[in-house]
Design a protein that fits this description.
The protein is an alpha+beta fold. The chain is 61% helix and 12% strand. It has three domains: 87 residues, 2-Layer Sandwich (S16 Ribosomal Protein, Chain: A); 82 residues; 44 residues, no CATH class. The chain has a five-stranded mixed sheet. The radius of gyration is 35 Å and the shape is elongated.
Length: 249
Amino acid sequence: MIKIRLQRRGRKKRPFYHIVVADSRAPRDGRVVERLGRFDNVSENQQLVLDEDRVIYWLGVGAKPSETVRSLLKKEGILYKMHLLRWGWEDEKIDAALKEWRDAKEAKGLEKVQSRKDQQKELLSAEEKAYQSHLEEKAAAAAKKMAEEKKAKEEAEAAEVEVASEEVAEAPAEEPVAEEVAAEEAPAEEATEAPAEEVAEAPAQLSTDMTAGDAINHIKETDLKDLEGFVPESEDRVTVVRAWEAKQG
């Protein structure tokens, strides 16, 4: 049996599909009889390119479309055109009927597009709120940690002062001189260690460190070659992932 089906092509995370005519017994990536078009379901517009005349020819000689291909042909009006051809309609009458069908479909499509845009806005807004909440939680945790560290430092300093006072009270007259020398030497050690803490490279900019809107704008305005590593595997915001996939496409 001859089938019209999809044949996967492209990269692992960025596939597209050829629409091909092949023997139903042939392996998925095996030899094909003819290529009829191309379908990209990853891009925002889900681009579909078809050789309509050849599709109609193969359907006319008995080729069976897969469920996915049948759905695509139905959306494009090719199956409707096949019915009209079987009824023996003339080309002009078929063209008029198809135009009327496509106009009605386009009117419905505009409503769906508007609905999809509204959904995109709502999704982006929700992701922005979630990110802001995440930043607030991080800031609160950092403030809490800083307060705890400050308290611990103050307690440690108070304990050191108390111990030093006790030692001064108990030690003979010569000992304070040694303590004073040690106190004078201590800042020198701190001065040598301080610069080491300051030398740290700034982390690479990641999409997860930005709001969804800022990340999307950065992806759109930056060359693809300069975006390497910008969107990490941990990025789970739908709007950012869509923008990244569209940029790669």
